[in-house]
Amino acid sequence: MNQPGTAPTPVIEVNNLVVEYGSRGHPTRAVNDVSFSVNAGECVGFIGPNGAGKSTTMKVLLGFMFPKSGSVKLFGNEPGAVAARQRLGYLPEVTLYYPFMKARELLFLYGGLQGMTRAQLKERIPGLLAQVGLEGRGDSQLKNFSKGMQQRVGIAQAIIADPELLILDELSSGLDPVGRHDLRDVMLDLKARKRTIFFSSHELSEVETLCDRVIMINKGRVVMESPVAELMKPLNIFEVEHELEGKRDTITVNGAEKFNATLTDILSRGGRIIATRTATRSLEDYFIDIIRGHEGGKA
Amino acid sequence: MRCLLIAWTVLIEAVRRREVYAIVLVSTLLIGALATTRFFDLQGVSKFYREVALQIMTIATNLTVIIVAARQLPREFESRTIYPLLAKPVSRFTFMLGKLLGVMGAGVFCFLLFMLVFLGGCWSLDVFVSPALFAQFLYLQVMGLLIVATLSFALSLLTNLDAAITMGALLYMLSSIFLGALTYLYQFSDEAVKVVLKVMVFVVPQLSLFDLSEKVVHQETWPPVPAHVVVELTAYSLVFSGIFFGIALMLFRRRAL
């Protein structure tokens, strides 16, 4: 953990990352000069439309894909280094786990690969299954699991060894509202225990709730990086819902002075103030503005 | 330890999936049916049973190993299970070695099942099998399976699943014909071609060298193979398996997932 006054420790460092797909003659650039870092204990959302380069970046972090140029470090190690993978948990995008195995067997496998002993796993697995909402399903074969249940198993395998860093691709994919609720509890628990979390999701409300910071990527480039609190802070825009001469209306005003003047005016004319609101913008509003602007070449 | 966990997964899959059982079941039924034959005199029954049952055992086990080995990596890619697996502290070498051990375990498991059925048939027909020769037969089969498994791994990374199974099965089936054809051609070739044929004999793995079934059939006239030959064949198997495994590993290490 970082001590007050000391520089934060980057757990993930990505510098000028470029990744290309396809043949040598006609390569497609999936990630284009991307740089960012994630510090210990941070929860960072990695968002962007489909095909933006989120999964590709994550795959490079884990050593599954190789960059054309740029550098990537995980706990100061090269991507794919066994020493780094000892300390992380990864949830891949939509995975169909071994259909011939039972949930408990699968967790024994992944926990064992993470270096946990049989005794540790026997103690850990029942609680873990309950935590992800699969209590009593340990002996069910995975071929009988729905997409959402597979995702829950995926989350369980990612957190089985209580890793310091979690990289989660399409976190809530396939989960129903109950599943999302359970997942939010799991994530909040991890956050409370100062685990570093780097995840991608299309559920922007989830990102808003959980993340300290958000990185937005589009067409392989980072188009926005900001603390969530900064994005969510109230705007200097006010709405005044009022009744004047028997007619209800809402006025939007920009700035505190105009807001005060509006209130005084309505009251002086015998009107009634029903409600006042400070306008905020959701992450989704930002997302749509930036992506549309970017597509239109404005960003 | 991690290697054994991966091998264990392969073994569970082989045991629980229906395809492998189908091969084992059909072959077992064939061997079982043979054990009830009474068409020939005692010696004829004994030889016929040994010959056909051992051929079934050999072909069925090799096919099982080809199928199980060839599908390991493509299935991992297809279902995306490769990602959570390699996100754990497992190197690509450990992953491949675990897969190979698992495939070999599945092959040996198959072989042991067949052996039990075969020996049951021997007991029912009152057929004697030389223990030393039979042990050599089993051991060399496993050595041959190692080549087949590593070759199938390499093929599955060079091509796709279906092509790897087809090519693996063809190479296995044609191996003995290939050696026979080379030997035949050798007699009628000039010196330059003879050199090429000799090189081919060394370059292409001769799987028929690992098949002692003929010896087991004619055990009355053939003694067990000398120990130094078994050692040489072991080295031969390890060299070819090492080459194929090395090719597979090289392809896998450089592959973007």
Write a concise synopsis of the structure shown:
The complex is a heterodimer of chains A (299) and B (257). Chain A is α/β, with parallel strands linked by helices and 299 residues long.
Structure explained in plain terms:
The complex is a heterodimer of chains A (299) and B (257). With 299 residues, chain A is an alpha/beta fold. Chain A is 35% helix and 28% strand. Chain A has ten helices and twelve strands. Chain A has helices spanning 54-61, 82-85, 103-113, 118-131, 147-159, 177-192, 204-210, 228-232, 256-268, 283-295, and strands at 10-21, 28-39, 43-47, 69-74, 88-91, 165-168, 196-200, 213-218, 221-227, 237-244, 247-254, 272-278. Chain A has a six-stranded mixed beta sheet, with helices on both faces. In chain A, helix 3 (103-113) crosses helix 4 (118-131). Chain A is globular. In chain A, 39% of the residues are buried. The mean pLDDT of chain A is 87. With 257 residues, chain B is mainly alpha-helical. The longest helix of chain B is centred in the first third of the chain and has 38 residues, at 42-79. Classes of the chains: A alpha/beta (299), B mainly alpha (257).
Structural key phrases:
heterodimer, A: 299 residues, alpha/beta, six-stranded mixed sheet, 12 strands, 35% helix, globular, B: 257 residues, mainly alpha, 10 helices
